[in-house]
Amino acid sequence: LPPVTVFLSTLTPKFYFALTVTSSFISGLIFVFEWWHFRKYGTSFIEQVSVSHLRPLIGGVENSPPAPVAFLAGENEPSRQNMPECKVWRNPLNLFRGAEYSRYMWVTGKEPLTYYDMNLSAQDHQNFFTCDTDSLRPSDTVMQKAWRERNPQARIKAAHQALELNNDCATAYVLLAEEEATTIVDAEKYFKQALKAGEMIYRRSQNCHSQSPQHEAQLRRDTNVLVYVKRRLAMCARKLGRIREAVKMMRDLMKEFPLLSMLNIHENLLEALLELQAYADVQAVLAKYDDISLPKSAAICYTAALLKARAVSERFSPETASKRGLSTAEINAVEAIHRAVEFNPHVPKYLLEMKSLVLPPEHILKRGDSEAVAYAFFHLQHWKRIEGALNLLHCTWEGTFRMIPYPLEKGHLFYPYPSCTETADRELLPTFHEVSVYPQKELPFFIHFTAGLCSFSAMLALLTHQFPELMVVFAKAV
């Protein structure tokens, strides 16, 4: 200790000033390099080195597994060439306005649907349920005006007027089932009446559809009405607990109208089969629809991940996996999770209940927060039912972001994440919901640390320059 004391007593204020300036300069260089590395690669260099090299040496757990093998890479190539613009899709599992959305508003006083969302639905109804020949039938003429009405009560009143003119007006029953019925049971009764009327009109249109283009348009409209009614009846059965009946109705509908796959009825079927825990049937549906030539969705990608996770999740332990490595089945499960997260990065926070859910909108944006809300609202229970599935998701999902090329002009398994999703999601989701935004990378800890260290050492250098004697006393005391 005496030599140390003698050494400290001989140090001058110039030494302390030079020391603080040097440390400030070095920490500033580290900060600049960290910031540059983060902007270019999306990660902290120090954190990346510590995770990749230091943590295994001290026995830590690495949650991110090896990058997926190349057999999925082919899925990315054709989609990169044709990057789709942000298209809003009808939510296959949208709720009933009277029986579900309205009840939420009565209880909470909050409007669950935005004007933009309801306006899109009004356009859908006009496209699906009207045609040029409606002017020949008074009841259909009334319904044509009803679908354009903004006020719900005016629409309901017009539907009743249409039924007074024609007791077999299927679209009037559809409107009443969606908006007037306050329970699913009441909605199902209206839809059964719509089905009876719709089948009769559909058979009539089939017999004369070849007579003129107007008759062909009427057949398309009547087909749309019939498919819509049957689908909603299947959803009523699902909500009322008659799940096997709902599954049969969905399968029959898909066989009867195979060309209407764009309506995504298979997503309703997947959810119902998961409720039955018929995992082999779920896999069979995925084998048909999880194809490179077909558009993806969160339901497809996350259901595929759930089935692969189910095979290993019960026995999965991150500590054990870090010691012995991942088995083939675990690698497949983790790759499936990474694929799902890259397609829609918003879903995990809802499944892990890190973010609260709201009622799903009537329209969704694929890969957006609206799709994540719609998926998690119905599928969270299926993830909870499989022991360890959420734990596996929790341990692996963040590793996706270290694998996706940065900046996001590139993609890994899919085309780059669209930049327009945030704007559309804010239009689709209610104002009281905090919209998830991606990519929104939080600054790594070491960037904050080096910035603080640089600022602190610079302040010390300034104080040493201004008050050399006082800082020497302080340094010796420390």
Report on the structure:
It is a single chain. By secondary structure, the protein is an all-alpha fold. It has three domains: 1-54; 95-263, Serine Threonine Protein Phosphatase 5, Tetratricopeptide repeat; 280-442, no CATH class. 67% of the residues lie in helices and 1% in strands. It has 24 helices and two strands. The protein has helices at residues 2-10, 13-41, 45-57, 76-81, 97-108, 115-129, 138-148, 152-165, 170-180, 184-208, 213-239, 243-256, 265-275, 279-289, 298-310, 318-324, 328-343, 347-351, 369-385, 389-396, 400-403, 421-428, 445-466, 468-477, and strands at 88-90, 363-365. Strands 1-2 form a two-stranded antiparallel ribbon. Helix 8 (152-165) runs antiparallel to helix 9 (170-180), helix 12 packs antiparallel against helix 13 (265-275) and helix 23 (445-466) crosses helix 24. The longest helix is centred in the first third of the chain and has 29 residues, at 13-41. The model is unreliable at 55-84 (pLDDT under 50).
